[in-house]
Design brief:
Radius of gyration: 17 Å
Shape: globular
Strand order of the largest sheet: 8-7-9-14-15
CATH topology: Creatine Amidinohydrolase
Number of helices: 4
Number of domains: 1
CATH class: Alpha Beta
Largest sheet: 5 strands, antiparallel
Bound molecules: magnesium ion
Oligomer: single chain
CATH superfamily: Creatinase/methionine aminopeptidase superfamily
Structural class: alpha+beta
Length: 248
């Protein structure tokens, strides 16, 4: 069931989203060669808790950390460990914050020091596919319109679109209806209404979109070891167009 949010619920949700976004921005400022993934996770957790929220992902379905931190060929759900970031890596950081009964959810992929033009292009196209997707996110349109726009931008740049993981409604629960795939057909899927809040999150691969899950049962990697990038915001559908809630 798709829940439309009331004004009062949206006021609360805006705060959770601002905190999640602030934690993502902090991660972007901290990322540098030599930083360990655990240090980054600790800083994110500290930021979220200082703002009176709790990390949405900590213990979610047993996830053992506050943020998903995914390096290079890791697409999503990377578990922060003692690994050090090194020059030329790209690192995807996915953050959720829960406060006053509502979640905010967002992600971005950051460059560690200077990166290859190929890696930068993947990051740029992934972000662009998000913006092209939400350009379709208006009342009366359908989820398939958003999905198809994301897919078109990614695939016409020669990249892969991960099929097994998708965006989602977000609110009182981290994952709510509807699913928001990054591939699909225009004019298909649930209709968008003013007051819906959805997490749109392209997960884009440099080469083949085939993925597998490592033995830790979390870490999702590309089968061909090509790079992957991720960009996500929590978006409110309004009559005036999409509003990005995860903005700090
Ligand atoms: Mg999400």
């Amino acid at each position: 069931m798709i829940k439309l949010k009331t004004q009062d619920q949206l006021d609360k949700m805006r705060e959770s989203c601002r905190i999640a976004s602030g934690a993502r921005s902090l991660a972007g400022r901290l990322v540098r060669p030599g930083l360990t993934l655990k240090e980054l996770d600790r800083a994110i957790r500290g930021f979220i808790e200082e703002h009176g929220a709790r990390p949405s992902f900590l213990n979610y379905a047993g996830f053992p950390a506050s943020a998903c931190i995914s390096v290079n060929e890791v697409v999503i759900h990377g578990i922060p460990d003692e690994r050090e970031l090194k020059e030329g890596d790209i690192v995807s950081v996915d953050v959720g914050a829960f406060k006053n009964g509502f979640h905010g959810d967002c992600a971005d992929t950051f460059a560690v020091g200077s990166i290859s033009p190929e890696a930068q292009r993947l990051i740029d196209v992934t972000r662009q596919s998000f913006w092209d997707g939400i350009a379709e996110a208006k009342p009366g349109q359908r989820i398939g319109d958003v999905s198809a726009a994301v897919q078109k931008t990614a695939e016409s740049a020669g990249y892969g679109v991960v099929r097994e993981y998708v965006g989602h409604g977000v609110g009182e629960n981290l994952h709510e209806d509807p699913e928001v795939p990054n591939y699909g057909r225009p004019g298909h899927g649930p209709r968008l209404w003013s007051g819906m809040t959805i997490a749109v999150e392209p997960m884009i691969t440099q080469f083949s979109p085939q993925i597998r899950v490592l033995d830790d049962e979390w870490t999702v990697v590309t089968v061909d070891r090509g790079l992957a990038a991720h960009y996500e915001n929590t978006v409110l559908i309004t009559d005036g167009g999409p509003v990005i809630l995860t903005r700090d």
